[in-house]
From TrEMBL, chains A, B:
All copies of domain HTH gntR-type, residue ranges: 1-55
Similarity annotation: In the C-terminal section; belongs to the class-I pyridoxal-phosphate-dependent aminotransferase family.
Keywords assigned: DNA-binding, Pyridoxal phosphate, Transcription, Transcription regulation
Organism: Tianweitania populi
Keyword Chaperone: no
SMART domains associated with the record: HTH_GNTR
Protein name in UniProt: Transcriptional regulator
PROSITE patterns attached to this UniProt entry: HTH_GNTR
One annotated GO molecular function: DNA binding
């Protein structure tokens, strides 16, 4: 066929004829045609051979362009970061660079799973998800003082889906939910989808402000409180045992359910206080995922909750997702967690991050940007900008130079953080720092 | 250490000491301790070495036992089937046996992806999901006469999650939704979670009963209609072009949105009429997944909709799931679809199923169980039981003999199918047939 161009609808030579012309085997032609058909460049119809397909519009640029016109709302950081082109820098994003994660253990697990039974590669999993992974999680929780049996654990598609499923299970439209101020921006975005009212209490360096927490329970009668206890997002603070005890006492008095999102647990060197451990999974539900330390591409979250809630959660997850994570994703994670490579990976990661936090804090302080607390682990620094600087303005300026920042108010229900900013120390390279300096 | 048993809390020998005693390298001991730690049999604490862990309750039997006491409701078939032990037979379930699916192409794709960039193995994907997979889907849709650009396609965690996301986007609590009677039972279960009213119209051998459809629109003013056009679940019927045209005309007159769940598309030899193709993705939204033909373990669904709805759907999916499928799952599917093996797999599957449908129909007719239509493809036979037989009673009897059946009323909003039953011809082996014969 040489370089002659083909027009849409034109018939291609038959497999046999082309094989003869090109002096290759018919199976080589079949393979080539199959690839072209799968790419949509040619079409195959039973009995009518192959024809040239029509043209198709290219992928829209919107997939990769920063959206300069987008309002700064709870979606701002995630939307700008998730769809960022490779050259965009993301000191505002919520994850580690890909090469900091456990990709070697994931490769090993994938090669090994490629040899697994057809059932693992092709079947729906059980409704709770991989027994192997639930057993590993149950063991870990017992170590942390949370007495969870494997059948009290439900795997979900992601940590966010764990929270979403619980909101569906626990909330009615119009209910009130309590959040920390500041808190992870997606809690707000998710609760909005559930048509509930959101109230917030200020977060201190040792957990929620207890007096304001008590006041909020008395005034608003929230049904649910959602929080991170260890390495709180965005502040990096950790809950103290005293505050944990008071929070649980108040929760019991007001029949409040608590979801403890423990997604940053593995970044801690020594575990902080946990509501789930103090409470014993009675009114506290623990959720988590592996996206921050292991892989965000192999997605899986989990819920650990009181046994009598699990059946209802399973029904809801079957109805709305026909199960939890990709079974294959859960098996990859179980494999990575059950050999020693993950423990080594995490140990190295903690050391690397501790160094990065110190370096980034020094660079920021030199610019007059002051960390609010010194976190016990993880990759966030929650910082106050120099006097009079507005974080949203700064984020818009930086975005024009292809740097995604995380301005304080996206984390604040009460919009109380106009001069604060969350920095991801693992994503702060010299160009990002330079743009930040220029934009200040 | 020999056969001496260890008690909880007991300290294990140091790595160096054990390596010396056992005459192995310290790295061998580290690896062994790591495995035991990951299994939770021993604990490691920085500075204090390894100790023996406490015991843990075993996996509850509830994970694998048939639930004889469960009421026959829209969850009955999925819950009994998903958690069935390997020895349970499932002629009532909604999927093919694992070894009928594309596990060889999946193995190949996994081996190849194990060598991919760290970004693919570790990063969150873009908000719409794998560009490679969306491009393949767009090309396929253009071939089917549905003019969808890649950025009109949104990948989701599963076909069910596609439907769930759309319901969140389109519906308010209290809205009315129209279903076919009978229809896929999970449509009912899912809509219940959305707090909407459900009404239904009888499904005929060529689509919904048009007169009853018109009546339902006028009386109930539904906001949404959810249907399968090709190889309708459970009946196996396919929509005729005449009915498709009438349905769309009525939908336009009543401003009805339609979700066409095209999950069985690849089982058709010649495509039937499609609402999405006639309508051009204006008021019709197409959803689908790869769980029925390729793998239910590598989960991924998709939505193809009008471009101005995609942004809102992305925000909702970020809020409630922080994205769609595992990026790694989407890449496995893109790889399988873009070489010729999937096309060959599907061609072989269609032939195999046609033979099985004929054989199963003959066996059932010999028992007085009569197929309602002869399906154009797929693995379902929707059948009427002999006079006076109750499908729910039959299902309960068969379950006591470890056979899961799918009684008609789980598919019927109006409970109009007490004497009908859906059979999965690929899951009907001789023991299942024997139990069915005995239970009748």
């Amino acid at each position: 066929m040489g370089a002659r161009s083909l027009t849409a609808g034109e018939k291609l030579p038959s497999i046999r004829a082309l094989a003869k012309t090109m002096q290759v085997s018919p199976s080589t032609v079949v393979e080539a045609y199959d690839r072209l058909a799968a790419e949509g460049l040619i079409r195959s119809r039973p009995g009518s051979g192959f024809t040239v397909a029509g043209s198709l519009p290219p992928l829209a640029l919107a997939d990769v362009e920063p959206r300069l016109d987008r309002e700064i709302d709870p979606f701002w950081v995630s939307r700008q970061s998730l769809d960022a082109a490779p050259e965009i820098l993301k000191p505002g994003c919520g994850w580690l660079p890909a090469d900091w994660l456990a990709h070697e253990p994931v490769r090993k697990a994938m090669r090994s799973l490629a040899r697994a039974d057809a059932a693992i590669l092709a079947d729906y999993g059980s409704t709770r998800g991989s027994p192997a992974l639930r057993r590993i999680l149950a063991r870990q929780m017992v170590e942390e003082g949370i007495d969870a049996a494997p059948d009290q654990i439900l795997l979900t598609g992601s940590g966010t889906q764990a929270l979403d499923l619980l909101c569906r299970f626990l909330l009615q439209p119009g209910d009130t939910v309590l959040l920390d101020d500041p808190c992870y921006f997606n809690f707000q975005a998710l609760l909005r989808a559930h048509r509930v009212n959101v109230v917030s209490v200020p977060y201190t360096a040792s957990g929620p402000d207890v007096a304001r927490f008590a006041e909020a329970l008395a005034t608003h009668r929230p049904r649910l409180y959602v929080t991170n206890s260890a390495i709180h997002n965005p502040t990096g603070a950790s809950l103290s045992p005293q505050v944990a005890h008071k929070v649980l006492t108040l929760a019991a008095a007001h029949d409040l359910t608590i979801i403890e999102d423990d997604i940053f647990a593995d970044f801690e060197i020594e575990p902080a206080a946990r509501l789930a451990a103090l409470d014993g999974l009675s009114r506290v539900i623990r959720i988590g995922s592996f996206s921050k330390t292991l892989s965000a591409s192999v997605r899986c979250g989990f819920i650990a909750a009181r046994p009598d809630w699990i059946e209802g959660l399973i029904d809801l997850q079957v109805a709305t997702a026909f199960g939890g994570p990709s079974p294959i994703a859960a098996e990859i994670i179980a494999a990575v967690l059950s050999d020693g490579s993950y423990r080594k990976h995490i140990a190295a990661l903690r050391t690397r991050l501790a160094k990065r936090r110190r370096e980034a804090a020094a660079v920021l302080e030199a610019m007059g940007i002051r960390p609010w607390v010194e976190p016990r682990g993880g990759y966030y620094l929650w910082c106050r900008l120099p006097y009079g600087r507005d974080a949203a303005d700064l984020a818009k300026t930086a975005l024009r130079e292809s740097v995604v920042l995380a301005p304080g108010n996206v984390f604040s229900v009460a919009l109380s953080a106009p001069d604060l900013m969350r920095f991801n120390v693992a994503q702060m390279d010299s160009r990002a720092i330079e743009v930040l300096r220029r934009s200040l």
